[in-house]
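Q: Got one fold?
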Amino acid sequence: MLLSPLKKPLVSVNWLHNHLDASNLIVLDATIPKVSELDDVVHKKEVIPNTLFFNLKQKFSDVSAPFPTTFPTLEQFQHEAQQLGIQQNSTLVVYDDNGIYSSARVWWLFKAFGFHNVAVLNGGLPAWKTAGFEVLNNYESVKSIGDFQAEKLQNHMVFFDDMQQNVQLNQRLVVDARSELRFKSLVREPRVGLRRGTIPSSVNIPYESLLDSGIMKSESELRTIFSKIAKPHDALTFSCGSGITACVLALGAELAGYHNLVIYDGSWTEWGSLIPE
C-alpha cells in the first residue's frame, strides 16, 4: 500500500495504526530530554513498531553552534535524512514520548527544507499506549539510503539579526511559548546562567495551553486561543526557550488556519544571552 499525500500536519494514533504497513511510511521518534532533565541521552524502552530514531540533538542540529538545537545546514539535514532512508515520496509521521513536544520541531524542520508530506502523531507514544497498541523494545533498522533532497525555503526560520530588526520595526507579532511564570520572569530560567526576561512587545501563549494531556486541542479550540492575539492573516513569529516548543505553537496555529508563521531559532536562550537587561 502506498499512502497518498497527507492533508493535515497532525494524524491520530488510530490513523497510524491503520497505515503502519504502508510501503512509503516512515515513523520517526524525535524524543529529546526536556531542558529540566539532566540526562541528555535518550534511553529507550518502548517504541512504536517500524520506528526509526530521529536524533534531533546530535544529527539534525548544528552541534558547533553556541546555543542548543540550532538550525542545521541544508547539506547536513539532507545527508542525515538520507541516512534514515527517507525518500522523496516518503510519508513521515513524527512522535515523541511527551505527547507533543520535540516532534513538532521535526515537522517544522522538514517544512523549512521544502518537504511537506510530514505530520505529528497526536499524543505521541503515551496516546499510542493508551489506545492499547503494540510497542517494541528496539528501533527498526534502516534498509537503504534515501533519495531525499532538501531545499531551504525562506520565511520559515528567523535568526538574531532578523529579530533585532523586527523589534525595531514591529512588523511581526512575537508569541512566546514558555510558561506564564517564565514569561513574566517570576521563576528562574531552567538553563544555568540564562537571565529572566522577554523579547520586547511579545505576547504569551504557553505551548501546554494548546494540549490536553499531550493531545492537541480541537481546531475550533485552537482558533479561539489564537483569535485572542491575532487574525489569521497576521504575521506571527514564535519563540520559546530554544526553538523547540515554539514549533508546537506553529503546529497549533497552522491547524487553526494561520499560515504567515516563522520560528525564531535561537529563541530566548539566544536573545537573553546576547541582549543585556
Notes: Residues 28 and 52 are 5 Å apart (CA to CA).
